[in-house]
Amino acid sequence: MNNISFSETYKNFVASLFQGIEKGDLEYIFKGEVTSTVVTNILDLAKLNLDDTELRPISSRIYFILGEGLQNISRHQEKIDGKTPSDSIILISKKEGKYTITTGNLIKTDKKNELEEKMLKINSMNVEELREFARYIRKNYTLTEKGGANLGLVEMAKRSGSQLLYGFKDFDNNFSFFYFSIQLDLQNIEIHDELKANKASYKYINFLKKFHQTLSDQNIYLIFKGDFHQNNILALFDILRKQMAETVVSIKLKNVLIEVLQNIEKHGDNIHGITDWKPGIVTIHHKDDCFFLTASNYIENKKITTLKSKILKINSLSKDELNAHYRESLLDFEKKVTSKKTGLGYIDIRRRSGNELFFDFIKLNEEHSLFFIQISIKDKKS
Amino acid sequence: MKALLIQATADTPKVHLDKDNNIFEISGLSLPEDAIEFYKPIMNWLEQYSVEPNSQTHFNLKLEYFNTASSKQIIQLLLFLEKLNVKSKVKIFWHYKDIDEDMHDLGEEYSEIIKVDFELVEYT
Lengths: 382, 124
What we know:
Distance between the termini of chain A: 35 Å
Helix content of chain A: 40-55%
Radius of gyration of chain B: 14 Å
Strand content of chain A: 15-25%
Strand order of the largest sheet of chain A: 4-5-3-2-1-6-7-8-10-9
Shape of chain B: globular
Order of helices and strands of chain B: EEEHEHEHE
Largest sheet of chain B: 6 strands, mixed
Distance between the termini of chain B: 34 Å
Oligomer: heterodimer
Number of helices of chain B: 3
Number of strands of chain A: 10
Structural class of chain A: alpha+beta
Number of helices of chain A: 13
Radius of gyration of chain A: 23 Å
Strand content of chain B: 25-35%
Helix content of chain B: 25-40%
Number of domains of chain B: 1
Order of helices and strands of chain A: HEHHEEHHHHEEHEHHEEHHHEE
């Protein structure tokens, strides 16, 4: 029997992002208008995912760099026709013991040279010189001028002990994207006198330019890859709540997000057989007057048949049948109801969405597959 | 009878059940991992209250969102209030935000299941 298939391209895109996740990994990608509220929320999410015991000695440094890196974007992004562009991006990733913070925002092209000179100057200094430079800016500039003098950049280089990585991409005649990335090596935290050369180098910037383009082409707002536990789910819920204007659609989207992610939290598997690790990925994008929420997680192959027939059944129901089925499951107190299994999850999601649930599987090996689910919500404004 | 007051958390609602002052209210978000555990003290309180209830019980549900795990507990609570209606005049006020279609529809649906006075209250 064939699955109801959703875009192969999108499925493969999500699968490629999800590949090779290890415990402790985190990837958070945001494209949209970066407000100070968004920054605060992302910071909270990032903090939740720092392993305190492992990182306590340097956590204050990480918080500083995270905060500074993110505020950099909300402070310096240019407005076009008085509006903050919705194409800024933020990427945070923790992988193989490295924490990377990357931002991309629009600047006026005529400021490019000046900015590049500052970066080159900072990168050419050693830590002692940076300390001097920071002191000089603090002493000689007023509070508003300090931002202009890029005290933040100086501090980030100093506290990370690494050179700043950056790049530019033309946007139109007047504006360019400015990409900025800073990396912290959690396993090698001593700061030497000379700044560490950023090994990720310009390959990463090139990757970033392409990736940013993909996000824009596909209209992707948000990607979160990591461990789905209640705190992360609540943080994501909060980000959506504060980021999206409250509309009929955004309320539905939030509600569906909770149900889908709590589903992963309850039923997700992982390929290493680690208990209490529920890795997954979720993305939100907009296409053809619809919002799409796509999620993927590992599933044991032996569970596929049951899950498949369950979703197919729910998809086959008419609206009235669906409501009857909901009521029946809601009032079914006979079956062993645990806090984990209510039998209501997919029925609820389908009812809220109003559309069929798209789903698919990719077999990974004899034991496990990737399970994909995509929920569409019609954007009523359009 | 001692009032039950539970402050809201990031994933559980505020609960205020007070016989002396005739206040019966649950408000906020309800998306706990273990909904059964959260609603247990509420059900216990209502159980005790039902021994000698006030002549009238106006129950206000003002939930911004509840997950499916919570819905199972909420319907049990409503079914309990339906039984209570014999001893105390029960009325349920189901508050929903004007643009929250889902919450409105759920209220409508639950009012068909529960045979007591049930009013949908819109707020902005």
